[in-house]
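Fresh eyes needed here. Have a critical look at this protein's tokenised backbone.
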Amino acid sequence: MAKQVLFIQGAGEGVHDRWDDKLVASLERELGETYAIRYPRMPGEDDPRYPAWKAALVSEFDALADGCILVGHSVGGTILIHALAEQQPKLRLSGIFLIAAPFIGEGGWPSDDIGDGKDLSKRLPPGIPVYLYHGGADDEVPTAHVHLYAKAIPRAVVRTLEGRDHQLDNDLSEVARDIRSLT
């Protein structure tokens, strides 16, 4: 049976079909047939609301098997990590991977829907590997955000990829390598 990967898209008009689909395609190429990627369309992608996305995530979690891997890009990563901190899924996770995720809280971005991320480490499922990726040439989310996450989740592995943009130049080979290293 293929190992399950749930990929949560970023936010913005047309992101699911015109932007993050390229990230999913890269991940599929790099991981190969032994992995099955679920790529749900999140509600209201052009104007994301935390309660609606969290409800969609909880529904997705119910469809996954033990040992699954969670990947979130940009705002999708932010919502994913906060949803996990608020309501841990019943299933056993193999890893959490955030790509270019905005940090919510002091030094990061404000949010009316999402609480401060400074104590994320205490609220995440224990013992689950967390990986953080950020392009050094990201014009959407400043690189400082990955360092704020690293402070909030000290056990996380941080990978700053020099010269790469918000989409990591549509190349998730490093993410795939780290996912494969978990098995």
About this structure: The radius of gyration is 15 Å. The CA atoms of residues 55 and 146 lie 25 Å apart. Residues 50-62 form the longest helix (13 residues).
